[in-house]
Design a protein that fits this description.
Layout lengths: L1 H6 L6 H33 L1 H37 L3 H28 L1 H8 L3 H16 L1 H15 L5 H23 L14 H26 L14 H33 L3 H38 L2 H35 L5 H33 L4 H25 L4 H36 L1
Helix pairs in contact: 2-3, 2-8, 2-11, 3-4, 3-6, 3-7, 3-10, 3-11, 4-6, 4-7, 4-10, 5-6, 6-9, 7-9, 8-9, 10-14, 11-12, 11-13, 12-13, 12-15, 13-15, 14-15
Length: 460
């Protein structure tokens, strides 16, 4: 099989197999995050309100990403399990159905969200100018949402086979294009006084993102054709099939709902932070970008682990799942111990790259230093989610996400920020408490499922 010969997922030492998949994915997500950093940088050059506007858009953007990531992770788990079991054609049909599934969900959720943007942004606060900037940005992003979703779902067909290089290439190219496209669309182009491209402000940042995503689809589809991930699949196979949609929904919905709760959780965080002013929202937005960069190596591990677990589960190799989980947890710990001292010492200067306002820099630095303590809890959470997806037991992902994003924060943030009078710093400490408690439980639950699968395998 192509996936075995090229990526050796089911044979050979675990560590090299994981690294071969994780490294390209990490490089790709570095450029994806730098893509977002470029957006944040250019928004900051416009004004603090524009930077705050992008921060306000995060939770709305998260709704779109929930569809993309949920469908993609569900599709990846199903395809990997079918491949591990030697059912190649079944894996291709699942990919076709997943593409249709993602497109339909994007339309169903995207249309009402588009028309509800203004009241939602009004709820988030952050100032009227920031809200207008967020509205201008998010309208274009939601309108082009189909491109985000199809890119992610197409990639699941490659990722399940261990191919993380194709998406890496797309993300690198996207970053390079965005570096030039952002300022071009933001400020316009008027040679000799003749306007060829009008100045669009924050709308230009959004339009650049949509155009880049649309272009990425053509690249990934061509690569998919070369690898034959839709070989012998007809147009009829794209027509929604009840049983296939039910299978995809069962695997994708928990992750999708979990990501939606993450978006809702960002609403909650932004709502609390917004009570402390525009500078606080802007500082939080800049700090989030830096945190995303720090987490990049662990994202590569999560992707590699999900593929390894999915194929190993399909092939009945439970001990390989256990070994992979241990290796990725140890690697994640090493990443944390390497990065946290750097972030603690240089966080203030890093925030200053995005905005030199002292208030923005102070808030962003406090977030980075406190959230650094929480870093490894994210590693545990995300890797445990990869285990649950790969074992085709994703139900707990939603409930853990509901606790982490909505259930616990509403009480904990209020306690720390207002009852104890810690202000915006109390929100950061609240995040630490919530994420670590969720991380410990998820770690225990994932190991429990692995032990159960081993018992079932031995009894069989």
């Amino acid at each position: 099989m192509t996936n075995k010969s090229q990526y050796d997922i089911l044979g050979g030492p675990v560590l090299p197999s994981l690294v071969r998949m994780a490294l390209p994915a990490s490089i790709g997500f570095f450029f994806n995050t730098m893509y977002n950093v470029v957006d944040t940088y250019w928004a900051g050059t416009l004004s603090t309100e524009a930077l705050a506007g992008l921060s306000l858009s995060f939770p709305l953007y998260g709704v779109l990403l929930a569809i993309a990531v949920g469908t993609s992770s569900g599709s990846n788990a199903l395809i990997a399990n079918y491949l591990g079991a030697g059912k190649e054609q079944e894996s291709r049909i699942i990919l076709a159905q997943s593409l249709s599934f993602g497109a339909i969900f994007t339309f169903v959720l995207g249309v009402p969200l588009f028309f509800a943007l203004r009241p939602i942004l009004g709820f988030l606060g952050g100032g009227s100018q920031a809200q207008e900037a967020a509205l201008a940005y998010t309208q274009i992003i939601i309108a082009g949402g189909i491109f985000f979703v199809l890119n992610q779902v197409w990639n699941s067909g490659l990722q399940a086979r261990g191919d993380t290089k194709t998406f890496r290439n797309i993300l690198i190219i996207s970053f390079l294009v965005n570096v030039g496209l952002d300022p071009l669309l933001m400020f316009g182009w008027s040679p000799a006084g003749i306007t060829i491209i009008p100045s669009m402000g924050v709308r230009g940042i959004a339009l650049a993102t949509v155009l880049v995503q649309a272009g990425g689809i053509f690249y990934i589809a061509r690569r998919g054709k070369v690898l034959g991930i839709l070989k012998n699949v007809s147009l009829r196979d794209f027509i929604p099939q009840r049983e296939r949609f039910r299978e995809i929904l069962g695997q994708a919905l928990p992750g999708m709902l979990s990501f939606l709760t993450m978006a809702a959780g960002t609403f909650v965080i932004t709502g609390y932070v917004g009570r402390f002013g525009t500078a606080a929202v802007a500082g939080y937005g800049a700090a989030i970008r830096i945190e995303q960069i720090a987490l990049i190596p662990t994202i590569g591990l999560n992707i590699a682990l999900a593929t390894m677990v999915g194929q190993s589960n399909g092939a009945g190799k439970i001990e390989r799942i256990r070994q992979s989980y241990r290796v990725t947890l140890l690697l994640g710990l090493g990443i944390f111990l390497t990065l946290y001292p750097f972030i603690f010492l240089f966080g203030y200067r890093l925030i200053g790259v995005f905005n030199s306002d002292p208030g923005v820099m102070s808030v962003g630095t406090s977030y980075l230093r406190i959230q650094g303590i929480t870093f490894y809890s994210y590693v545990i959470l995300f890797q445990a989610n990869s285990i649950l997806q790969g074992l085709k037991k994703p139900g707990a992902i939603f409930w853990i996400g509901l606790y982490r994003q909505l259930g616990a924060p509403l009480g904990v943030f209020t306690l720390f920020a207002f009852t104890l009078g810690l202000g915006v710093v109390g929100v950061w400490w609240g995040l630490a408490v919530v994420n670590w408690s969720a991380g410990v439980f998820t770690w225990w639950w994932s190991w429990r499922l692995i032990r159960q699968r081993e018992v079932l395998g031995n009894s069989g």
